[in-house]
From TrEMBL:
<keyword id="KW-0645">Protease</keyword>
<feature type="region of interest" description="Disordered">
    <location>
        <begin position="1"/>
        <end position="20"/>
    </location>
</feature>
<dbReference type="GO" id="GO:0016926">
    <property type="term" value="P:protein desumoylation"/>
</dbReference>
<dbReference type="GO" id="GO:0006508">
    <property type="term" value="P:proteolysis"/>
</dbReference>
<feature type="domain" description="Ubiquitin-like protease family profile">
    <location>
        <begin position="60"/>
        <end position="241"/>
    </location>
</feature>
<dbReference type="Pfam" id="PF02902">
    <property type="entry name" value="Peptidase_C48"/>
</dbReference>
<dbReference type="InterPro" id="IPR038765">
    <property type="entry name" value="Papain-like_cys_pep_sf"/>
</dbReference>
<keyword id="KW-0788">Thiol protease</keyword>
<protein>
    <recommendedName>
        <fullName>Ubiquitin-like protease family profile domain-containing protein</fullName>
    </recommendedName>
</protein>
<keyword id="KW-0378">Hydrolase</keyword>
<feature type="region of interest" description="Disordered">
    <location>
        <begin position="50"/>
        <end position="75"/>
    </location>
</feature>
<dbReference type="GO" id="GO:0008234">
    <property type="term" value="F:cysteine-type peptidase activity"/>
</dbReference>
<comment type="similarity">
    <text>Belongs to the peptidase C48 family.</text>
</comment>
<dbReference type="InterPro" id="IPR003653">
    <property type="entry name" value="Peptidase_C48_C"/>
</dbReference>
<feature type="compositionally biased region" description="Basic and acidic residues">
    <location>
        <begin position="65"/>
        <end position="75"/>
    </location>
</feature>
Length: 279
């Protein structure tokens, strides 16, 4: 878990392993799914956004220096393209900083590039060593941002430090994806291998068979309106889950608040506007 006000750890390692700038844009997911799914984004209705107009009269048109400092910062328009990993991490740090230490104590999150780096054979051992330093088994929930095939989704590891026989806390995985047509479950084999290797790196007794029995749940969550919103959806998933997650996650109560009507597109727009105003 990254500390507030500090740069993400292992940046030099990530750059060395990845041999690219961290802010390199991810590839558009549409190119990877259109070949398998007959879906046309042009048919998806998009809500038009009105431009805010500001009327300036007389002396108010040119504010003095003091007035300029006192004026609230205006939200920037949402970037037109897909979020790259650098911008995503900057926004995630803002979200994390906005919650109290007590509120986020049961949570942790991994760097947004770690899962992608883990998929590379040459980087796998390094990533597992970095995760080991995060002590994720002491946390109730661990956010794992995933960017694969140019698409963002969110894996949440729930109660991984608990015994599989616990009756009050269900050890499980949640996969939240705003693009259901991309078939989120195609990630399941890699996710289970990822989890198995984490257990192995921590010298825990969980076997491959036990890992295969950990439920992977894919709730029906709100869906994105175009091919570029997935990163913002993941950030909003994290923000809302931090605020609403139960102390003890139970399979009997699933899906809790994670439903198709969890939030509206207007809620997402307001979230982005507030997010850009955070320090």
């Amino acid at each position: 878990m990254q500390e507030r006000g500090t740069e993400p750890r292992n940046q030099n390692k990530i750059r060395h392993v990845h041999r690219r700038k961290k802010t390199e844009p991810v590839i558009d997911v549409i190119e990877s799914v259109l070949s398998s799914f007959s879906f046309n984004w042009s048919n998806v209705p998009r809500r038009s956004r009105t431009k805010r107009k500001r009327e300036l009269k007389g002396n108010d048109a040119l504010p003095g220096p003091k007035e300029e400092l006192l004026r609230p910062k205006e939200a920037l328009p949402r970037p037109k393209g897909k979020l790259d990993s650098g911008v995503f991490d900057d926004y995630l740090k803002k979200i994390w900083k906005n919650f109290s230490e007590e509120k986020k104590r049961p949570f942790a999150y991994l760097d947004s590039l770690w899962f992608s780096l883990y998929r590379s054979f040459s980087s796998k051992d390094k990533v597992l060593s970095w995760i080991k330093k995060e002590h994720i088994f002491s946390k109730s929930y661990v956010f794992v941002p995933i960017v694969c095939w140019g698409h963002w989704s969110l894996l949440i590891l729930c109660h991984f430090g608990e015994s599989s026989e616990s009756t009050t806390r269900s050890r499980c995985m949640l996969l939240l994806d705003s693009l259901e047509i991309a078939n989120p479950r195609r990630l399941e084999p890699e996710i289970r291998k990822f989890v198995q290797d984490i257990y192995k790196a921590e010298d825990r007794p969980e076997t491959k068979r036990l890992v295969s029995q950990i439920p992977l749940l894919v709730p029906k969550v709100p869906q994105q309106r175009d091919g570029n919103e997935c990163g913002f959806f993941v950030l909003y998933f994290i923000n809302l889950f931090l605020d609403l997650a139960p102390e003890n996650f139970s399979l009997k109560e699933h899906p809790y608040f994670m439903k198709k009507d969890w939030f509206t597109s207007e809620d997402l727009d307001r979230f982005y506007e507030r997010l850009d105003l955070l320090n």
